[in-house]
Amino acid sequence: MSLLITGGTGYIGSHTVVELLNAGDDVVVVDNLSNSSTKSLDRVEQITGKRPVFIKADICDKQAMQDVFSTYDIDTVIHFAGLKAVGESTQMPLEYYHNNVTGTLVLLDVMKQFDVKKLVFSSSATVYGEHNVSPLVESMPTSATNPYGQTKLMIEHILFDLANSDADWSIISLRYFNPIGAHVSGLIGENPNGIPNNLLPFVAQVAVGRLPQLSVFGDDYDTIDGTGVRDYIHVVDLATAHLKAVAALSKVNGCMAINVGTGNGTSVLQIVNKFKEVSGVDIAYQISPRRPGDIATVFANADLANEFLHWHAERDLDDMIRDTWRWQSQNPNGFE
Ligand code: NAD
Ligand code: UD1
After folding, report:
1. Which residues are identified as catalytic?
2. CA 314, 77, 180, 204 torsion: positive or negative?
3. Mean pLDDT of 301-321
4. b/e burial code for range 277-298 (CB count within 10 A of at least 16 → b)
5. Which residues pair with 217 in a beta bridge?
6. Peptide bond preceding 135 in cis form (omega within 30 of 0)
7. Least confident of 25-29, 132-136, 179-183, 205-209
8. Of the candidates 38, 80, 85, 111, which lies 20 to 30 Å from 11 by C-alpha distance?
9. Cβ < 6 A, ligand 1 pocket
10. Residue 193: pLDDT above 90?
């Protein structure tokens, strides 16, 4: 029996593949390499001494997905594949809806055809929209403010409807808060194309001199120091949450959404100061206007993950920043 990991050469996928291989699982990775390369799998092999099966394929390609399911004895799917840049999604909505929503529909259709009905899906805290007050709880109303967020929300609706239609499905939708950090080896980490949109890769690239300075988007929020507060979670803790979710699928009849966060909030300036402390490098920054669509404070209530998955975050902010810095300083140009 193998686990199929869609998007398994990407940032979160590659860290999850490491944890699965270390746990002795058989892993088949499918990725179209639109935002990654197989160099991450070379590094996964360096870390674990094992190499997963890799198939270059697009999840929208039904024939290719049928070939995967007829060649390998797939038991469970962890579905990371998707486009994820919020700003880009507003410029290219059709590509985002097609890739993320159509791709997931094709995947689910093929899973159903092969009677594989266990799934862990990569959702996002973005589905809580703008109006809920943190700590965010899974039962709160959902909404989305951009095409990327809409795709996550639509897919969650599809998953709930599918599970309601057929009790054989066991689905967990993990709502990630803000994944950062890297494997402790410094061999794999986040490798964004172009100028990063997210805070940590941006700060890390300022620290290695690839970017001149950080723009802090707003210092007039109602937070500890006026800058935005988020729930940063170490990517290896996030990876282990997937292993716990796979194990918990046997207890799930239907579809469940579960937050994956630490329950702690950290401001932009706290991140900058921690990065300076850990790396010993000054991070030049300027205060800039608020970024449209941002809200002041986002952090999780992580009780359900603690109770149902028996998972909790083990790595603190020092670990997250230290591992980000190790990855970035050892690989200033990513995998190149
Ligand atoms: P990533 O871009 O590093 O990984 C996604 C992978 O999916 C890439 O390797 C890409 O090549 C692949 N892919 C995209 N479309 C595909 C397709 N049609 N067929 C096959 N492969 C395809 O991103 P990540 O940060 O590892 O995110 C993984 C998942 O987690 C995504 O679904 C993302 O939306 C979700 N997520 C990420 C974050 C975050 O901050 N990184 C937060 C919440 C949710
Ligand atoms: C963003 C996305 C969200 C997605 C998440 C993880 C938006 C509006 N939201 O969340 O949908 O799930 O990434 O991929 O894009 N910041 C700066 N300067 C920067 C970058 C960020 O000050 O150059 C601040 C932001 O204002 C925010 C914090 O840092 O307060 C974190 O930002 P970011 O890493 O982009 O994550 P989110 O905005 O939480």
Report:
1. 148
2. positive
3. 98
4. ebbebebebeeeeeeeeebbbb
5. 288
6. yes
7. 205-209
8. 111
9. 6-7, 9-13, 31-36, 58-60, 80-84, 99, 103, 122, 124, 176, 179
10. no
